[in-house]
Design brief:
Blueprint: H1 23-42, E1 60-67, E2 70-77, H2 84-97, E3 113-120, E4 124-126, E5 142-148, E6 151-155, H3 157-163, H4 167-177, E7 191-200
Antiparallel strand pairs: 1-2, 1-3, 3-7, 4-7, 5-6, 5-7
Helix pairs in contact: 1-2
């Protein structure tokens, strides 16, 4: 997955209350993402009119774009850097046109694009020093982030469920995503964080 995020360690990670987001918020965010892509293709300026105060709260957001089941772009922000609507807009444009793994989205694909928006909840440091601590990783609920040794990386909650990871496997994959050794989570100076996500598919 492509990361488009400030990955500097922070002592506190505050974000919007994702439990307060419902399907209507999800539909609006997905509409913002798709309209942002369409506007970029048309060379038009787009600023949605946002009345709901929840969408003005800051939150981390990731946008996943698929076309007929194939990944076409992924990007976002792990930290609550922007208001929710703006983070979604920026992430969608970056995923559609600046994910270096893929050609930019074309106008002809607009009718078959599938948009998934993942809103990141509060990021919490957890204790995982041995196998006995694996209960602190909740598969299906938590995403993971590993920070240390001058590097960092993360995986969203759906990565674990899609791949059928155990908590240990999920942790190892996140370490490797950060470019670290598989057992880096046991090393001094390496921190592990968990975060929930509200996924609108």
């Amino acid at each position: 997955m492509t990361q488009y995020a400030d990955m500097n360690p922070q002592s506190e990670f505050m974000s919007t209350g994702i439990d307060e987001l419902d399907d209507s918020h999800g539909r609006k965010l997905k509409d913002i993402a798709l309209t942002s892509i369409r506007s970029q293709l048309s060379g038009m300026r787009y600023r949605p009119r946002i009345m709901d105060p929840k969408l003005h709260e800051k939150a981390g957001v990731f946008v996943t774009i698929q076309n007929e089941g194939e990944l076409r772009g992924f990007s976002g922000y792990i930290y609550p850097t922007y208001e929710l609507w703006e983070a979604t807009k920026k992430a969608a444009v970056h995923a559609a046109f600046l994910d270096a793994r893929f050609k930019p989205i074309s106008r002809g694909e607009l009718g078959t694009l599938e948009i998934e928006v993942s809103v990141i909840g509060p990021i919490e440091k957890i204790k995982v020093h041995s196998e006995s601590d694996m209960g602190n990783i909740r598969i299906g609920t938590d995403g993971l982030m590993v920070v240390g040794q001058g590097s960092s990386g993360f995986l969203l909650p759906q990565a674990a469920t899609q791949m059928g990871f155990t908590p240990h496997e999920f942790l190892v994959e996140t370490c490797e995503k950060a470019g670290l050794e598989a057992d880096a989570w046991t090393h001094p100076g390496v921190s592990v964080y968990r975060f929930p996500a509200r996924i609108f598919a």
